Amino acid sequence: MERLERRRALIEERLVEVVDGVEPDALRDEVRHAALAGGKRVRPLVSVLACETVGGTEADAVDFGVGIELVHTASLVVDDIIDRSELRRGTTSSWAEFGYGPAIITSDGLLGEAFALFSSDPDATQVVAEALVELGVGEATELSAEPETEEEYMTLARRKTGALFRAAAELGAIAADSDPVTVEALGEYAERVGVAFQIRDDVLDAVADADDLGKPTGHDAALERPSVVQVTDLTPEEANARARAESARAIEALERVEVADPAARDYLVELAEFVVERER
């Protein structure tokens, strides 16, 4: 765990450096509020661990990891506006703190800083652009054409959450100069982790305590959003079982990867197991 915390600290340090470089001051304050309000930094950790698994170093992947965290944060800023959620990561959401206009500008600023970090590699830029297209389709589907079956829900989860997880791992593989087969295998691993994460998130929204979770609960039901609990007839226990099945298939995808750092690969396995057992 000490090694993992060292990676997390490296990501946090670089994230602070990027945020501190934002101009003008007003935008910097707004970006700081959104980006540095906490968070598990799961996606950048996936980037770094994927890179190390296939022979790269943490330094190779940290900028891409920070970039995907900024993209994720930008999406959360918009999500909170859509959901009218006043709480994010245990503090006020961007729109609740600064207003709707500044929050939208904050999201734009986060994306701009992110793509500045990806701009050194056309493959990285393409991966993230494709992920944002999938995310956009997923968000639009959620608002306009709600899924009615478990299969449709899973497609939505892959677009809304899995896409950015996939991009995170593929970025790590790209940073290590991996071949396309390796990039795809790590991408599948992370996409399935993302789907498992989303299923668990839906279950927590339905059953967890808001203070424990660090954000309001019951939002999916109140806004009639398509959570796994609402779309399907699954009980929370059955939904958790679906999440564990996705986690297991994610771990299977890692078997197609030629591993250079077994310890880093083991952390990826632990992450796949953690996302379905987490309590917040």
Description:
The protein has one domain: Orthogonal Bundle (Farnesyl Diphosphate Synthase), CATH 1.10.600. Helix 3 crosses helix 8, helix 4 packs antiparallel against helix 6 and helix 8 crosses helix 9. The longest helix has 28 residues. Helices cover 76% and strands 1% of the residues. The protein is an all-alpha fold and 280 residues long. The radius of gyration is 18 Å and the shape is globular. The protein is built from 14 helices and two strands, in the order H-H-H-H-E-E-H-H-H-H-H-H-H-H-H-H. The chain has a two-stranded antiparallel sheet.
Summarize the structure.
By secondary structure, this protein is mainly α. The chain is built from 14 helices and two strands.
